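Single-chain item
Fold in token form
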Amino acid sequence: MTAPVITMDSGGDGEDGKKNKMVTMQFILPALYGKAEEAPKPTDERVVIREEGERKYGVVKFGGVASEEVVKEKVEKLKVSLETDGFKVVGDYLLARYNPPWTIPMFRTNEVMIPVE
């Protein structure tokens, strides 16, 4: 598996039964695949391979467990910091995790990424 694994939440909170929470997961393919067409074909129809263009992000790095509470706090602080510095937030945050789930929490590396202009 490649790192980071990038996730994005969309939809509801999944708790009240009104909206199902959906999580999109992204994996970065090795440079050996110069174009999306060169990557192995997925065997699951829910998996899509696509190229992403360049983007600009505001990023904050943090260690430990990336719980919903911690991520929410990091996102809010980063948004305030970006807006204070004159950046315009142009989308939802992404969460990048760099370690396998069995990594001891104090050794984990995570990032919250917010697209900006």
Q: What stands out?
A: The longest strand covers residues 5-11. The radius of gyration is 16 Å. The chain has a mean pLDDT of 92. The helical segments are 68-84.
